């Protein structure tokens, strides 16, 4: 009994911190989601009205669509480029490998706000380097952060084809934010993949070479299967983080972009809470977003983990 009391005593500080700063705010927010509240002294219980209003709200589902665009734009490109860089940098005897590993990891430790300000300058319509480069090749300047047209629709406009709205793709403004997300995620993916590659025994590759396997076969039969736990981890982490994107949207498109085409879920939640003071509505939106992330994560763990090789 004494040992158990000592164990609880050691756990108590962490439990208090979690209870005060995590579990209590979470429970309080859940309670608020059933009310109508604007920070005044009066708080009205409205039951499931906030959730019903969200489910039938076109603006909410538009924000879900823009968030899905962001996730699908950032996730696969970050994983592919990160794996490619990890394969190039895994040889620790290569000259300058430490320098390159540091350079590729720098975006991860760069403030998202500072990075967003830098990208805003690069893609500025009049002063940006991107338009300067386009102009040097004789092209027309692009209104990067004020263009609401979907990038896929812009491609099909040349052929006179009108795509369904869902297939028109992210707006040009959201595409710039996606590029920023990719730039920030590549370094983390590279480092994690490097750790995974270093955990693969070289004897597997030596045995494959003896059997006559070339680099491509070794990559498909050895590297990819044994990196599957790493890939699953990055897939889950990047999905969760991408659903929570906010800072770059707020800095690069403060009003939610042209025609609200960069208003992802967390940005719209912030607007509802701190611009319109609809805290009950915003709390309900937060728990719907949490439910979506939870369902997607469980589906990833259930269906993708079947193909994960831990040996």
Strand and helix map with partners:
Layout: H1 2-32, E1 35-36, E2 44-45, H2 49-55, H3 58-89, H4 97-109, H5 112-122, H6 129-136, H7 151-157, H8 172-198, H9 202-210, H10 215-226, H11 228-243, H12 247-252, H13 265-274, H14 279-304
Antiparallel strand pairs: 1-2
Helix pairs in contact: 2-14, 3-8, 3-11, 4-8, 5-8, 8-11, 11-14, 13-14
Relevant terms:
69% helix; two-stranded antiparallel ribbon; 2 strands; MetI-like fold; mainly alpha; 1% strand; single chain; 311 residues; 2 domains
What can you tell me about this protein's structure?
With 311 residues, the protein is mainly alpha-helical. It has 2 domains: 1-27, no CATH class; 57-307, Orthogonal Bundle (MetI-like fold). Helices cover 69% and strands 1% of the residues. The protein has helices at residues 2-32, 49-55, 58-89, 97-109, 112-122, 129-136, 151-157, 172-198, 202-210, 215-226, 228-243, 247-252, 265-274, 279-304; strands at residues 35-36, 44-45. Strands 1-2 form a two-stranded antiparallel sheet. The two termini are 41 Å apart. 27% of the residues are buried.
């Amino acid at each position: 009994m004494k040992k158990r009391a000592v164990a609880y005593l050691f756990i108590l500080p962490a439990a208090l911190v979690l209870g005060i700063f995590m579990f209590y705010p979470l429970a309080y927010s859940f309670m608020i989601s059933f009310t109508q509240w604007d920070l005044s002294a009066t708080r009205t219980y409205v039951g499931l009205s906030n959730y019903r209003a969200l489910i039938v709200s076109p603006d909410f589902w538009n924000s879900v669509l823009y968030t899905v665009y962001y996730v699908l734009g950032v996730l696969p490109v970050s994983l592919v480029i990160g794996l490619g860089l990890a394969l190039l940098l895994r040889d620790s005897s290569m000259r300058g490998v430490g320098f390159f590993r540091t350079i590729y990891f720098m975006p991860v430790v760069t403030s998202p706000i500072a990075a967003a300000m830098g990208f805003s300058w690069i893609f500025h319509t009049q002063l940006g380097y991107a338009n300067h480069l386009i102009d040097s090749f004789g092209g027309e300047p692009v209104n990067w952060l004020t263009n609401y047209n979907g990038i896929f629709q812009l491609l099909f406009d040349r052929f006179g084809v009108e795509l369904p709205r869902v297939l028109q793709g992210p707006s040009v403004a959201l595409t710039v934010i996606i590029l920023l997300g990719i730039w920030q995620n590549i370094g983390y993916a590279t480092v994690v993949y490097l750790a995974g590659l270093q955990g693969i025994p070289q004897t597997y590759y030596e045995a494959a070479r003896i059997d006559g396997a070339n680099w491509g076969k070794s990559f498909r039969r050895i590297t990819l299967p044994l990196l599957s736990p790493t890939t699953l981890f990055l897939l889950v982490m990047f999905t969760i983080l991408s659903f929570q994107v906010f800072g770059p949207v707020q800095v690069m498109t403060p009003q939610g972009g042209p025609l609200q085409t960069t208003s992802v879920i967390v940005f719209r939640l912030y607007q509802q809470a701190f611009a319109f003071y609809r805290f009950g509505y915003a709390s309900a939106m937060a728990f719907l977003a949490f439910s979506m992330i939870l369902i997607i994560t469980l589906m990833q763990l259930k269906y993708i983990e079947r193909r994960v090789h831990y040996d």
